[in-house]
Amino acid sequence: MLGFVGRFLPNGYVDLAGTRVTDGSHLVTRMDAKLGKDVKKLVTPRVLEKAREYFGRPTLDGVELEDQGGSGTPGSHGRSE
Fold first, then answer.
1. What span, in angstroms and rounded, lies between the C-alpha atoms of 44 and 72?
2. Which CA distances in Å does 11 have to 6, 42, 60, 72, 81?
3. What is the pLDDT of residues 28-59, one digit of tens each?
């Protein structure tokens, strides 16, 4: 499981070279046709690499973040089916 502190995600991340990235490129909102709604996805290079490897899906376009649950749950981890 890959976990996050959801309230910190909007502030950016540190890339593999140790550089802080704060341009918002790590979080994207995309329409999910299966769900029929916009979903927020984490798309850092390392997260994409590991998720593609784990799920065996080389074209995976991001890790969808949880958007339901109690306080502290939304944005704190990848969404499970």
1. 21
2. 10, 13, 24, 16, 27
3. 888 888 888 888 888 888 888 988 999 999 99
Would the pTM of this model clear 0.90, i.e. be above it? Answer: no
Work out whether the CA dihedral 26, 32, 35, 37 comes out positive or negative: positive
Distances (CA, A) of 24 to 5, 11, 33, 69, 80: 16, 8, 24, 24, 24
Q: 3-state class of 8 per DSSP?
A: helix
CA 64 from chain centre, in angstroms, equals 5
Q: How far is CA 63 from CA 31, 46, 66, in A?
A: 13, 11, 10
What ranges do the domains of the chain cover? Answer: 26-66
